Each structure stands twice: as structure tokens, then as C-alpha cells.
Amino acid sequence: MTHTPDSPAPHPLPPLPRPVTGVFVRNVLQTACPGYLALVWLDAEPLRTGADFAFVDDLPATCPHPDEPLPEEYRRALETGVREGLEIRGRGRSPYATRIVFRDAAWSWVDSNPRSFEIAGRRAAVEIVDCLREDREPRQAGRNARIDRPIPPMPHTRTRG
């Protein structure tokens, strides 16, 4: 939703009713070139700053490994996808003020591209809103998701012990 100086300021959005943590999106389509591969893990939290949306990158330094960080255009595409997905679910404006924390990702130099991460972001937004509407915890979401299986652990997060 675009706000111009001549239009009245939009009403502030209510914060996300509760955190939705452990969202996993599997966006895999490798039947054509280019492929579409994006595996993402993220959390959604209430945002109480007066803004509609915030995106925080909390990827581990080893994602996928230290000498090959996730390309910046993939991060931006994921952010765009989540924002647009929330706006679609809210009919032009997100239904809630939401802070997205990007936790981890898996990708490929051959089969990943910005579009695959944008699609993953939109599917993450749908899963977040559905979790709230259905009062449930996240389950696998996205193309080729396996909703009957548990969410896989984040690949680049190491447990300290």
C-alpha cells in the first residue's frame, strides 16, 4: 500500500498475535532448466515499533559455508516474497505488523535463483497466516513440501555443548 503526503496515514497494523517460529519452506522444482531450489527457515514475531514489516537476517556465518555466503539478491528476493505474500493475504496490506527473522537457507549455484527465493517467501507468508488462523504450529510448506514429516533441522546451525 502506497502512502503519499496528500493521503491520510494508514491506521497502524495490529502486531502479529503470537510468534510463529520454525517456519520451513521447501521450494524445489528441478524438472527444467533453470531449476528452482530454495530451502528456508525463518521465524515470524510481533512487531511493535509502528512499522508494518521488518526483515532481519540472522543467517549463520557458515551458510552454506564461509567462502560462499548466500547471494544478497536471494536475501532480497525472500524479503520481497514474504512482504508481498503478507500483503496478498491481507488484501493489499499485511494483516499484522510482522518481524521476520531469516534463520537459515540451503541453495545451489546451479538450481537456485532470486525467483525461487521470492516464491519461498510468498509460501512462508501463507504458512505464517495459516498457522495463526488454524491455531497450529508450522509444518513443511512450499512446492514438494512433505507436510506429513517433521520440519528438518537447520543445516548450518551448530548446537553448542
Provide a descriptive summary of the structure in words.
The structure is a single chain. By secondary structure, this protein is an alpha+beta fold. The protein has helices at residues 72-89, 114-134, and strands at residues 20-29, 36-46, 53-57, 64-65, 68-69, 98-106. Strands 1-2-6-3 form a four-stranded mixed β-sheet, covered by helices on one side. Strands 4-5 form a two-stranded antiparallel ribbon. A hairpin with a 2-residue loop joins strand 4 (64-65) and strand 5. Helix 1 (72-89) packs parallel to helix 2 (114-134). The N and C termini lie far apart (46 Å).
Structural class of the helix and strand makeup? alpha+beta
Strand content: 15-25%
The overall strand count is 6
Average pLDDT score: 86
Query: Which word captures the global form?
Result: globular
Can you list the strand order of the major beta sheet? 1-2-6-3
Order of helices and strands: EEEEEHEH
Characterize the largest beta sheet: strand count, sense, and whether it forms a barrel. 4 strands, mixed
Taking Cα atoms only, what radius of gyration do you get, to the nearest Å? 16 Å
Low-confidence stretches: none
Helix content: 10-25%
Q: N- to C-terminal separation?
A: 46 Å
Individual helix count: 2
Summarize the structure.
The chain is of the alpha+beta class and 161 residues long. It has helices at 72-89, 114-134, and strands at residues 20-29, 36-46, 53-57, 64-65, 68-69, 98-106. The chain has two helices and six strands, in the order E-E-E-E-E-H-E-H.
